[in-house]
């Protein structure tokens, strides 16, 4: 089954404790991205990747890191989480850029709470 | 910068009622337009899309027409069902870009 898998589904942590949210897709997609969802703001892109070792900032990259060492994996790293990073996070992938009308496949989300 | 504005919810309808969720956008050029749906506890799924002016996207009884002159992409369905209860997001993506710009989402609740 084609899917984007994120882990963990729920995460509670404390300020400053480094964490990683994993993301993996089994569709051989070139493009992967991370979004955060906040009430009333919709989803905002954090980072995206066009291929292995190629990443770029989205709209809200501050406080986040990513890496793309393998085509299928795109982990999101919070080196020193702060309470304003409490949010619902989604990983997504696509075969082509969304600008040509390509659809995104989303993971099920990771609810992060930073205390 | 690019932006998407959609009506705030929640929108509460009775089963078989007509649905309209308004969406307007601001963007340079000719973006691709999308409607995504999020069911409780799940990620977003593409509902429909349109990539050029006057295109109509349709799926599962939902429709939306890309109106360049009014910069709008309103979502409509003639007869909603309880199973349509979800949050609906309007979004755009710049030509050749790889980022979706989302509206704030509209929660739809359909009562039997």
Write the layout of secondary structure elements.
The complex is a heterodimer of chains A (115) and B (112).
Chain A: E1 4-7, E2 10-13, E3 19-25, E4 31-38, E5 42-51, E6 54-57, E7 65-66, E8 76-78, E9 87-94, E10 105-106, E11 110-114
Chain B: E1 3-6, E2 11-14, E3 19-21, E4 23-26, E5 32-38, E6 44-50, E7 56-59, E8 62-65, E9 75-77, E10 86-93, E11 100-102, E12 106-111
Parallel strand pairs in B: 2-12
Antiparallel strand pairs in B: 1-4, 3-9, 5-6, 5-10, 7-8, 8-9, 10-11, 10-12
* Unreliable stretches covering 5 or more consecutive residues of chain A: none
Approximate helicity band of chain B: under 10%
Average pLDDT rating of chain B = 93
How many alpha or pi helices of chain B?
0
Strand coverage percent of chain B: over 45%
Number of H/I helices of chain A: 0
Low-pLDDT segments, ≥5 res of chain B: none
| Strands of chain B, count | 12
Radius of gyration of chain A: 13 Å
Distance between the termini of chain A: 36 Å
Q: Assembly state here? A: heterodimer
Structural class of chain A: mainly beta
Measured between the Cα atoms of the first and last residue of chain B, the distance is 41 Å
Our Rg estimate of chain B from Cα atoms comes to 13 Å
Description of the molecule:
The complex is a heterodimer of chains A (115) and B (112). Chain A is an all-beta fold and 115 residues long. Helix content of chain A is 0%, strand content 50%. In chain A, the strands form two sheets. In chain A, strands 2, 4, 5, 6, 9, 10 and 11 form a seven-stranded mixed beta sheet that branches. The radius of gyration of chain B is 13 Å and the shape is globular. Chain B is 0% helix and 51% strand. The N and C termini of chain B lie far apart (41 Å). Chain B has no helices and twelve strands. The chains are: A mainly beta (115), B mainly beta (112).
